[in-house]
Amino acid sequence: MITTPKTKAPTAGRVLLQNISWETYERLLNEMGDQRNIRLHYDRGLLEIMTPLLEHENPKRILEKFVDALADVLNIEILSAGSTTLNRPDLARGSEPDSGFYIQNEQQIKGKRTINLETDPPPDLVIEIDVTSSSIDREGIYAAMGVPEIWRCDRGEVKFLQLRSGNYVETEHSLAFPVLPVTEVAKFLEQSQTVGETTLLKAFRAWVREQIKAEPQ
């Protein structure tokens, strides 16, 4: 029996449903398929449906390009997981991050067509962009799944979060890319408001190369 969901008043681009069973959540995922422009986040009966806006998608793409540039310049293999649905039925939690990457665990996931988080590791890095208030604890979802690192951009403010003893704490440097301080990401992201993306990425790559040269041999 499906319980009639209760709906909270939506913020821009979001709606929250209460009393949603895991079976209903899975059925929605299956019926909607992969070709859709909404994301679903589920936490033990709460279902948040989000429609990404331009102010959300642009910083996400820029941060993704920063990850690609870091991996290229530092010669690190990565696997882009995008907004792949991350589900843990045993935890009654599921999420679709703005973007996810396998970095430290790239070798374990390479070649797989599906991911089973009960046996496979979660993404090593998740990117989350917040331009409206979320009614669901996405950090709690990712912590329960064991995601080691989150890059969070909240209305232009960038934070690096690392999972320690089951909770996320702010850090100055990225776990996946220790050469990268959060202050530089914030600076380059702010520059994206006034310069083109091609120019921005050239400058970012040049900065990463300078960091490599400055490292002790």
From TrEMBL:
Q: What is this protein called?
A: Uma2 family endonuclease
Record Gene3D superfamilies: tt1808, chain A (3.90.1570.10)
Its Gene Ontology molecular function terms? endonuclease activity
Q: Which organism is it from?
A: Laspinema olomoucense D3b
Entry superkingdom? Bacteria
For this protein, the record's InterPro entries field holds: Nuclease_put_TT1808, Restrct_endonuc-II-like, Uma2
Q: Which PANTHER family match?
A: SLR2084 PROTEIN, SLR2084 PROTEIN-RELATED
Per the database record, which ranges form the Putative restriction endonuclease domain? 22-181
Keywords of this protein's UniProt record, alphabetized? Endonuclease, Hydrolase, Nuclease
Q: What SUPFAM superfamilies does UniProt report for this protein, alphabetically?
A: Restriction endonuclease-like
Keyword Lipoprotein in annotation: no
Its organism's taxonomic lineage begins at: Bacteria, Bacillati, Cyanobacteriota, Cyanophyceae, Oscillatoriophycideae
Q: Which Pfam families match?
A: Uma2
